[in-house]
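Please, structure for the following, as tokens.
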Amino acid sequence: MSSATGSRLGTVLRSEDRVTPLELFFDLVFVLALTQCTALMASDPTWQGLVRGLLVLGVLWWSWVAYAWLTSVVDPEEGVVRLTIFAAMGALLVVALTVPEAFDESALLFACAYGGVRVAQIVLFEIASRDDPGLRHSINGLAISTGIGVSLLVAASFTDGALQGALWALALALDMGGPLLIDSSGWRLMPEHFAERHGLILIIALGESIVAIGVGAEGIDVDAGVVVAALLGVAAAAALWWLYFDVVALVAERRLSNAEPGREQNEVARDSYSYLHFPMVAGIVLLALGLKKTIEHVDDPLKIEPAVAMLGGTAIYLLAHVAFRWRNVRRLSRQRVLAALVLIALVPAGVELPALATLAIVVAVLAAVIAYERTRFAELRARLRHQLVAEQPPSPANVPD
């Protein structure tokens, strides 16, 4: 971009890896959106309610991903970018507020506000790619898939029932599938910024699980059972944090940073972060639903849907880690696969045992995985965490199973 054009448009390409305060501010609106997804499922804890909640979460996730890629190209705190980000935040706030009625009275408003969020991103990308033909080509492809996705959501707002759900699913599939059909070599990103951005959004999702504990405790007596359940909920969130940030995030960030810039690096970022972090976030949101229902009725068994949300959501989180590690270093985490299978197998018990006992089992399984990995890979873990390994990505033979 010429200096004259850059001055006139106020667009400045990103030149450093740090996540800016405005990006964190933007994410605060996304926190509300996550909370609303949990509330949507909690208000209708049926299979249909869970599916609807996950569809809304998928749409919201993809809008956030779009801005993660955008702000890895442009500096969000400069000129017209800053103002457009503020406008996108306003549109995203409207999206979040309409989530509880996204399939009913507020369906059209949700779709239009979501379209506004995505249009702002496309416009900024078009500006940033003015003197970058490769990026411009990729953006044009993204604009097409985005337009189709938003149009399908608008069409879905005029329907209901199974057809509405099908249109939502198709919109999400086409929007998320678009990047697989676009030439990936044209994208631009800052690897360390991109990895940190996704790590921070995972923390935000974990924060939603803590919020769910507080929401679940509203209007009830905080007795010994509620206190134990709350502490176990925090322990579960802490375990999920540990499983990601202790080693996995470090290895993944190094893999992304050392990938060849261009197609290879962009595809690693797309697969490992844009795609595989979604089931991680979805797993956390499902666990949050289970936590909310547990706090409300600590002594009663969970119904089948919340039990599947708690146990299955945690399993989804673990399996996403397995896929994440395989994509980055081609190693299978057998202990995490085993833990996920154990949690899924415990679903029948989850509808018979008191909810507090089910939550305790989840924490015990996660703690067992952490203890095993900490013991089995103690030396490698210490070297990774203290950055004593070579700058190249760890070889598959030296990465924990």
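The longest helix spans residues 191-216. Residues 33 and 60 are 7 Å apart (CA to CA).
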